[in-house]
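Re: the pair you flagged

First of the two:
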Amino acid sequence: MRVLFVCTGNTCRSPMAEAIARRLAAERGLEDVSVASAGTSAWEGAPASDGALLVSLENGLDLNSHRAQVLTPALVGAAELILVMSPHHRDRANLLGGEGRTHLLTDFATRTDAGRPVQDPFGGELDVYRATFNELAREIGQVMDRLAAERGARG
């Protein structure tokens, strides 16, 4: 399964989400889950933000090689599951062909339609980045549990 995480600039939330998901998928033995990230308004090739780099390193994840990419119809088309950080990201992914495969991360994780966005730490202090990282780790943990359970039900 190809999972795509989407935020605005692809320098904070979605790169952290991608790294967290990659680690959690490996820990849960979900070898068929691949992850990527993109931004609706990304500056192509931009590195992860300093805050995202530092907080990820604190948590054993390295974003040094990350480079931002713009959300495109090709990326949307290649993804089987698109998890976005806010409703406007969902709208953009749907416009690019993601209808039916695009969900707010928090809604997919909790199987609700609460519509709660993930806090954007851009420009914030490290504590804001830490809070966002922790929120992403919690939500993505639930996503990976759901994917593992769905695999078990099919298998």
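Second of the two:
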Amino acid sequence: MNKVLWSALFALTLSACGSTGDKPATVDDQSSDRAATQTSSSERIGMGGDGVTGSALPGGRAMADPRKDPASALSRRSIHFDFDSFVVKDEFHPVLEAHASLLKANRGLSVILQGNADERGSREYNLALGQKRAEAVRKVLAVMGVSDAQMEAISFGEEKPRNPGNTEEAYAENRRTDVVYADE
């Protein structure tokens, strides 16, 4: 009886490990002739007068990626939270609107929303709080029209502090969700 139970458990474990869920595997063709004809994301992504659009400068030169322009709201990648909270503050809505506009205009782009917490609280609690923070940002972006397929929310809990100090200022820096583009 014990052998049958272990065999069944082993078979279930193997089948679970082989499952990829609903996401199909993707293959990226990196052959030289295909790579020569593709444009980079910085060539496709530009900031136009009406918002975020794909464009290039006259003469075929690529416009600078607005995500790297310090004057652009897109260069702001962290959404900060109050202590023990996962409510997105109104002050971050313009930043999220800029990212939502970029993502809606460029459906091939995707973001990973990385939730973080300060070191206060248990590891498990902070991991859950970081996930709630990432999900809160995902929900705001979804309300702004971003496709769920373009977003992934994960948590690092207290494992990736931006500031290792033990002051309120350091804790405030660590209570955040970072918007990370998959193509960068």
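Confidence is low (pLDDT under 50) at residues 12-61.

-B.
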